[in-house]
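Quick one:
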Amino acid sequence: MAIPAAAGVLVVLLAWLAGPGLLGISDDDLGAPVSAEVTKPAPCDRLDPVETVRFTVAGKTHEGTLNGCGHGQNERVDVGVPDELPDQGTVAVQVADTSAGASDARRPLGLALLVFACFSGGIFVYTWLRLPPKPNPEPKAAKPAKVS
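Output:
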């Protein structure tokens, strides 16, 4: 019983130390969120669609490329803009996090689910090892043939 429990604790500890990327949570800084207007939408039937957006930062209007699709012409989209913008040319932007300002409970929830999975696996192994072995069926003895 101690070995499955120790293995479960080790898995949870390694998952905690691996960081948020293991559970699908990224710490990428998307930049400052800015409202942008889609100037050239892209249909979603292509591979790697790119839309063109226009946004204003510090009184200057900039053009940007957004990896995405399905937005309409002149639709407003919140994008993450890098901290340093070039004076000319297009800027690669990303969709801003839609849950900005909310507490991020994904990592603790993911770790809780991982602990539950380890516990369930340990209980399964414990139960499997405690099952009594099945007895082997004895071979049937052959009946003596009748002699008449």
